[in-house]
Amino acid sequence: MDTKRKKIIMVDDDPTILKIGRLMLKDHYEVYPLLSAEKLFQILERITPDLILLDIMMPEVDGVETLKRLKADDRYARIPVIFVSSIDDDRSVFEHLKLGAYSDVSKPFTSDELLSRIENCLNDYFPEESPKPEIEKTDEMQKILAVDDSADLLKMIYLFLRDKYKVYTLSEPEKLETLLVTLKPDLFLLDYKMPGVSGTELIPIIRKHPEHKETPIIFLTSDKSTEFISEAIGLGASDFIIKPVKVEKLREKIANHI
Questions:
Q1: Do 102 and 211 reside in the same domain of the chain?
Q2: CA dist., res. 148 & res. 12, Å (int)
Q3: pLDDT at 115 exceeding the cut of 80
Q4: Do 253 and 148 belong together in one domain?
Q5: Backbone angles phi, psi at 210, to 5 degrees
Q6: Per-residue confidence band for 193, with pLDDT thresholds at 50, 70 and 90
Q7: Which of these three, 90, 125, 160, is where a domain ends?
């Protein structure tokens, strides 16, 4: 086996998932499929992987406890971890990411999705040497700028999107014009109503830059009224997302416009 290839450990109590995952990854990475957290810590005594794919729902020791144990050990704390889970709960996913997971992949996953998440993660950790699986994607990650006065929401957006996009966040909307001198986002996420400067007031600031005449702008709002929708589109918004923001809806909307 090619020793230059990155090593990936995949931990899941379902042998079928391990078999599928290995088939998807074996042409690009050296894959170690394991059935339990116990076996993970046994093999970590012998090899240091470049990434761990970790199931959340496992008997005895689950993925969350396994991640906490990894992060508490200086030998393993810097190994990136991607959660693999069937949990469809954005708040839970957010909490998992705050614990130190790099990203998450939902079951059932596709080969392109899994390879993309892995490549983006390895690019972050090993930017000069990560492998480039032949999957359809741009050479450079597209840039997203999220503007909201809620620090928690900005952190959630960053954690949810960082595996696929270069995410920039801004909690002080009055600084947007200065930021646009050096940053050229491919898409804007704007809170519709903020104290001081609202999202509606930011649109003219964005549109006066020639390179942003057509750049997609997605509003984040709690207003579900038809009046809001008409006003937002009339002001130049490309789309909107109703709060609380759901990760899959957020990714879907961005993919549709970017």
A1: no
A2: 37
A3: yes
A4: yes
A5: -50, -35
A6: confident
A7: 125
Interacting residues of 213 by C-beta distance below 8 A, sequence separation 6+: 207
> Residue type for 175, please?
K
Q: How many domains does the chain have?
A: 2
Q: Which residues contact 79 (CB under 8 A, 6 or more apart)?
A: 48, 49, 50, 51, 52, 70
Q: Is the residue at 136 inside a domain?
A: no
The pLDDT mean for the chain works out to 85
pTM over 0.90: no
Residues 153 and 100 in one domain: no
Range of the domain at 199: 143-257
Q: What is d(CA 251, CA 253) in angstroms, rounded to the nearest whole number?
A: 6
Which residues have C-beta within 8 Å of that of residue 229, sequence separation ≥ 6? Answer: 240
In a domain, 67, yes or no: yes
Domain co-membership, 115 together with 35: yes
Query: In terms of domains, do 112 and 42 share one?
Result: yes
Q: What per-residue confidence (pLDDT) applies to 135?
A: 45
In SS3 terms, 74-107 reads as CCCCCCCEEEEECCCCHHHHHHHHHHCCCEEEEC
Phi and psi torsions of 54, nearest 5°? -125, 120
Count other C-beta atoms under 10 Å from residue 64's C-beta.
18
